[in-house]
Amino acid sequence: MKQESTLFLKIAGILIGIPILALCIFLVPEIANFAAELFPNIAYIM
């Protein structure tokens, strides 16, 4: 029982982590570019 629940938690962690990693790689830079266009005077901070 314990081995099965540990495996389930590992798989669940990986399945939750992969989309979050993909968002950080692809979506966050797009948001930063959009914000830099809106506020060019503080773009160096981003």
UniProtKB/TrEMBL annotation:
Name the record gives this protein: Uncharacterized protein
Domain of life: Bacteria
Transmembrane regions listed in the UniProt entry: 7-28
UniProt keywords, alphabetically: Membrane, Transmembrane, Transmembrane helix
Lineage, broadest ranks: Bacteria, Bacillati, Bacillota, Bacilli, Bacillales
